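Annual report, structural modelling task.

Input specification for the iron/sulfur cluster complex:
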Amino acid sequence: MSLHDRSGLGPNLDVEDLVVIRPDQLNDLIARLGDLGYETKGPTIGDGAIVPGAVRGTSDLPVGARDAQSPGRYRLEYSDDGHLFEWAVGARSWKAEFFAPRERQWRAVIVDGTLRFTEPTKSARPLAIIGARPCEVAAISVLDEVLMNGACPDTGYDARREGLFVVVAECTAPGGTCFCASMGSGPSAGPGFDLALLELDDADGHRFVVRVGTARGAEVMAGVSSTSATDADVAARAQALDRSINRMHRHLQTEGLAALLARSMESPRWDQIAERCLSCGNCTLVCPTCFCSDFRDTTDVSGAVERTRTWSSCFDLDHSYLHGGPVRASTSSRYRQWMSHKLSTWWDQFDTSGCVGCGRCITWCPVGIDITEEAAAIRGDDEAARAVHVEEEAR
Ligand code: SF4
Ligand code: SF4
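The model returned the following structure:
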């Protein structure tokens, strides 16, 4: 079957069209993507959490799962309602699909006196992600700016990213640490998806409103039976998204934030955070946009040499090692580097925020340090210091 096969049951659709499918038709959509040659992956349950995994049908998705998240805490709970997307995000983001935690860059061997380099072979099948969250799609766009569109493109990232098909699941059940509404990255999907699903279950039954994002998405949907969205479906979708925003209790005030952090390098708050921060680096490992890496060259007895890239972290003491010592020796300087890069200097480098408000760094921080709370505290200290300054000037 080719992408242009129109022998299916669905109507011809345009970008931004809304149609409705039932759970068995979502199953058909996943099967169609597989038939079109995609490797189909999505959220699954593993290790007591929602994790990316192989998805060949709706039964592989987290059926009935709910997540209870708060700073330093994550638990899955279950319902028998058959809902597929009533959870937020787990620890593992889609970043690892394109930017592997550990990856061989090249291997060199001497053959007949000549050094021969080989690179790892890339998967021939493009990836289709079914059920990525809007914040995760936003995070992929951020990584694209860093690893694909920047001055030094990462060819491995580019190769794995190529041909990606995204079915985003818009959020109706934000987690306890989410703040995507503040960052403009959710709960409805922004750019970067081919199809967007929103799950509804009301008097009209369990169904998904599908928004077409690209011509490619329209072509895929043309092979899946669907019905046009009614006014009631459109209204229910809008209400679900509004409810989702209202249920999001965390907020990050982004106005002037980059400049605020840039002038707060000497804030006493960094030392206060360091009294709790373990410098473990969990926040950077779970973050869908952190991209620090390290390279190791190794040899074996045959004389072959390998270069391996691994994820690193700005909390790793060695990561800032320069001419005899780490530049950021204290925990406060490492936390400051992480947060001020995410929310301030990322703008200078990549013209975007480095944070999409997924809340992972809050949930998976063992001591529950909350980036929204720390940004608010630094803002409060800054406002207090400015008020004192104005008072002194007035005297
Ligand atoms: S900084 Fe935290 S909330 Fe922001 S994208 Fe990274 S993990 Fe998500
Ligand atoms: S903020 Fe939390 S997760 Fe990040 S390094 Fe400190 S203790 Fe670890």
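Residues 18-246 form one domain.
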